[in-house]
Amino acid sequence: MAETTTRESPPEFADAARDEASLRRFLHGLPGVDAVGVEQRSAGLATRSIKKDSKLWAIDLAISMVDLTTLEGSDTPGKVRSLCAKARRPEPGVPSVAAVCVYPDMVATAVEEVRGSGVGVASVATAFPSGRSSLRIKVADTELAVEAGATEIDMVIDRGAFLSGRYGKVFDEIRTIKAACGNTHLKVILETGELATYDNVRRASWLALLAGGDFIKTSTGKVSPAATLPVTNVMLQAVHDWHAATGELRGVKPAGGIRTTKDAIRHLVAVHEVAGEQWLDPHLFRFGASSLLNDLLMQRRTQLEGHYSGPDYVTVD
Amino acid sequence: MSDRVTVSKTYKLYLGGAFPRSESGRTYPVTDSRGKFLANAAQASRKDARDAVVAARSAFGKWSGATAYNRGQVLYRVAEVLEGRRDQFTAEVAAGEGVPTKRAQSLVDAAIDRWVWYAGWTDKIATVLGAANPVAGPYFSFSVPEPTGVVAVLAPQQSSLLGLVSVLAPVLAVGSTAVVVTSQERPLPAITLSEVLATSDVPGGVVNLLTGHTAELAPWLASHADVNALDLGGAPAELRTDLERSAAGTVKRVLRNPAAEPDWTNRPDISRLRAYVETKTVWHPMGV
User: Fold this and answer.
1) Closest chain A residue to B149, measured at CA
2) C-alpha angle with apex B42: B41 to B44, nearest 5 degrees?
3) What's the rounded Cα separation, in Å, for the pair A199 and A204?
4) Confidence band of A4 (pLDDT split at 50, 70, 90)
């Protein structure tokens, strides 16, 4: 932990990040999450009905927040190129998505395809999805993606270290990766499906924020359960509280398991109610998704044309 | 004899293999032919229709991919379960259609026979509608019928069981999946049929039965882009033109029927099977 003291944490939390013991004291001193309360609040907000113009606006906003993702062993340059084409222009008259999200070796292909379109290229790194490798490899993985031109890095935390209470190790790792990123945005994947409790989600969120992550992201999409509304709520509370304490704006990205427009709009309602209106912005909230985009496009058409659309009318990915 | 409090039923929809209430929470009373209360039925909304189409679409791959022989077995099994509910169907048909029990019985028997008849066609229809085409060239050319997809069926309003079976069974026999809007005033046999389907081997979502107002649901199904065919059988006369027009907007097959209901006891032919298939023709190069 020695070298971390030289980096600036926000003055409010300089103490918290001083060493392993104070980090532990700080994280365990966070108020516990009322599990029943957060689930009830999520369920309550999910019943809110968004109609007509507001729905259309929400759909367009959600499209502009999508990180269009393909993270398969079977990814080919051709598949990434077609994904990028869709990201740039999902459909005539529709905003482009926020970014495409690919493995590091595909970054160069994606960068070439989205150049000049305003669409970012996010790359997963640090031995995604398990995060089980040495720090050296993780840094190299990150540098590979950054040098290829990625504008955003999605790193995974070492869940094994986190769950066994070695918060300092996780903290240092995030710091080191952040340093390797330079100006590139860093999203920290907590993999909440493996963290077991809401309290852990809150601790991991704060840990990632303290260490300098620009975004906290729920999941890799490879573990079930992935993004759920209550988990997203806990993370939104963390960025909201972080902003209240430091004035800095940090983002949240639920990823995995959000497949329908209904789900997406429920998340947007939660963003508005839990974090605040200024988070309704692609710079501060993203959806990590692949099949969600097609559903958003279908629902958009339903709104505009007045009848239900079908999967025959959107691209097959 | 003690006075029992009657247990009056409030039925639900049959959607994706489950029995949900209508999303709208609405129900409407069903009466017999003389106006006596029989039960409450769910009054489906456009969102139920939407969900039904989603269920039918997701069931389509498996059902259309099953071997014709297997589909025949599954449908025959439905006929067996229908047979077991014969008395219940007879009572419901008699009450709903206002016919004497004897006549209701023969209608139910005809419906079961009709189901068996269509079950037999599953593995024979390809040989009748398909062909090895004589072509001028070194090709082996053959045509095979393939299921159309999701079929929206507006079931006959008068004949609540035999009519329903006559329009539903051919959809299933060729491997398409169905969203059925049942007879509005006489939905009970259809509801019992859904209980039969749920307890036989038909995969959930292959048949979805919506009770409610045909005039309310039909336009949404006719314009739905993920519905591939529409049977106008039970559509209100004044809506038919509009329904055809909006079905044309998404290029659906439309099965037009005479405005008056046919006599369903007449011997059927394969025209309804033909209505729900698309012909695929393959040109295969022959050896050099």
Assistant:
1) A312
2) 140
3) 9
4) very low
Taking the domains of chain B in order of start, what are their residue ranges? 27-285
CA separation, residue B218 to residues A137, B179, B215 (Å): 60, 11, 6
In whole angstroms, give the CA distance from residue A160 to residue B25.
48
Helix, strand and coil percent figures for chain A, each rounded to 5: 55, 10, 35
The domain tally of chain A equals 1
Look up the CATH architecture of domain B27-285. Answer: 3-Layer(aba) Sandwich (3.40)
Residue count of chain B, please give it.
288
Instruction: DSSP for A263-313, please give it.
Output: HHHHHHHHIIIII-GGG-STTTB-EEESSHHHHHHHHHHHHHHSS---GGG
Asked whether B241 and B86 are in contact (CB, 8 A), the reply is no
Indicate the SS3 state at residue A120: strand
Spatial distance between the Cα atoms of B58 and B268, rounded to a whole number of angstroms: 30
Q: Nearest 5 degrees, angle CA B183-CA B184-CA B189?
A: 50
Domain-located, residue A299: yes
- Which one, of B40, B14, B158, B5, lies nearest residue B93 by Cα? B158
Query: Is A217 one of the catalytic residues?
Result: yes
ipTM of predicted assembly, 2 dp: 0.85
Give the type of residue at B259.
A
Pairing verdict, β B139-147 and B131-133? antiparallel
Q: Kindly report the backbone phi and psi dihedral angles of residue B37, in degrees, each rounded to the nearest multiple of 5, phi listed first.
A: -65, 135
Which entry of A169, A217, A263, A295 is annotated as an active-site residue? Answer: A217
Helix (H/G/I), strand (E/B), else coil: B49? helix
Contact A309 B249 (CB under 8 A): no
Contact assignment for A308 to B225 by CB distance below 8 Å? yes
What band does A140 get if pLDDT is binned at 50, 70 and 90? very high
Per the structure block, which two tokens stand in for B50?
A: 């939407």
The verdict on residue A312 lying in a domain is no
pLDDT tens digits for range B221-258: 999 999 999 999 999 999 999 999 999 999 999 998 88
Helix (H/G/I), strand (E/B), else coil: A99 = strand
Structural domain containing residue A248 = 2-305
Full DSSP string of B125-171: HHHHH-EEE--SSSEEEEEEEEE--EEEEE--SS-TTHHHHHHHHHH
Is B223–A308 a contact, with Cβ atoms under 8 angstroms apart?
yes
**Does residue A315 lie in a domain region?**
no
Chain A interface, Cβ < 8 Å to B: 306-313
Q: Does some domain include residue A136?
A: yes
pLDDT tens for B100-143 read 999 999 999 999 999 999 999 999 999 999 999 999 999 999 99
Q: How far apart are CA B279 and CA B146, in angstroms?
A: 6
A253 belongs to the catalytic site: yes
Q: Counting beta carbons within 10 angstroms of the beta carbon of residue A52, is it exposed (0 to 12), middle (13 to 18) or buried (19 or more)? A: exposed
Report for A5-9, A48-52, B193-197, B256-260: range of highest mean pLDDT:
B193-197
B40 CB-side CA count, 13 A: 14
Identify the DSSP state of B287.
P
